[in-house]
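REVIEWER CHECKLIST
Item 1: Sequence provided? yes
Item 2: Single chain? yes
Item 3: Sequence as submitted:
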Amino acid sequence: MSEVSFDALPVPAAPARRDIGLKARYRAERRFRLYGLLAVSVGLAFLAVMLVSVVGKGYTAFRQTAVTLPIAFDESVIDPRGRRATDPGVLVRADYPKLAQNALIEKLGIDPGDKAMVRKLKGFLSDGARVQLRDIVMADPSVIGTTRSVEILASANLDSAFKGQIDLAVDEARRKVSDQQVAWMNRLKAEGVMAGRFNIGLFTFGASSRPETSGMGVAIIGSFYMMAIVLLLALPIGVAASIYLEEFARKNRFTDLIEVNINNLAAVPSIVFGLLGLAVFINFMGLPRSASIVGGLVLTLMTLPTIIIATRAALAAVPPSIRSAALGLGASKMQTVFHHVLPLAAPGILTGTIIGLARALGETAPLLLIGMVAFVADRPSTPFDPATALPVQIYMWASEAERAFVERMSGAIIILLIFLMAMNITAIVLRRRFERRW
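Item 4: Structure as written out by the authors:
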């Protein structure tokens, strides 16, 4: 047999080099990454502008200017006829602002007979001194005839001037504080009598027509009551409905209709739930208007779809092998769900609940329709008492024209944002801490 020379065999031609567009695809990928980075940067920029604007206007709300004065509880002013033993109402009707004015006159060394100078003192101290001094006397009538050092709030205009929020270089006629009041303010500041302190009243005071005595006390209590009602009602009802739909209900047109309606309710505007609450809970059931119980029920209806959807997703994420293993060992359907599936789905359920509560905490529209925008000065003792909520309080302060109310509005926004951030961070931490990956 003759030998075959491999050198003589034809060599196949190299395939033609084709341009498969790698450079173009790489460019498109870089552009897409750039667009994504640009979108994230724009979002962060808007967030930063919002936070800087809110914090810049609201951080001063946590400081309040006050004047420490030796108040002489003069009996000739409080009870000139000595009738308080037989008529306790005398102590309520006394001219307490005059006590504060007399103490300020003495502190500044003003001649009480100089009516022009005395008139310039008007608006220096807060009108809330009436209530403050009255409460001191009502709590301990033995103070009558004595002198005590009392910290009196400055008026809103003096507070703004003390914080540097009023341009004192403009003409006196164009600002709300006079040159004489500014001179007195600087004098008292130099003596250490007038100073800024932490504004505890922002968290304890109720509604007031005076900015310096207005606070979020009623709103905080009202929001607490509503969140407690939402948690007590929405969580068990939502989890029970989710377990039935996901684990026990048969898949048919009826359950499909329920699922579609639940998904639609999650997207319904919140003001619709306010109309529903107004019609059912107030007009039909006769529950008190402006009460936390009605607000809690309305927010429960609004939160239920969110909790149901999150709970069903958490239950569906549990692998079928868990169910099969439990059933194979002789567990009943209910034992399988409550002893094995539900504990494994608990982190997702808890996360969905916290997110639903955070959404309910920031709602305003449904609460406006059920009357929680009312002027409430006294703190509610039960959920059936008139109250308001944090977002509604922000809305009411935003409608005021005075700068001090705008300052408090921004301060309340900071508090609300802190609550919402804390709730969302808690949800993230719990999810990462207890979530199991399959």
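Item 5: Key structural point noted by reviewer: The beta strands are 63-72, 147-153, 194-198.
Item 6: Recommendation: ____
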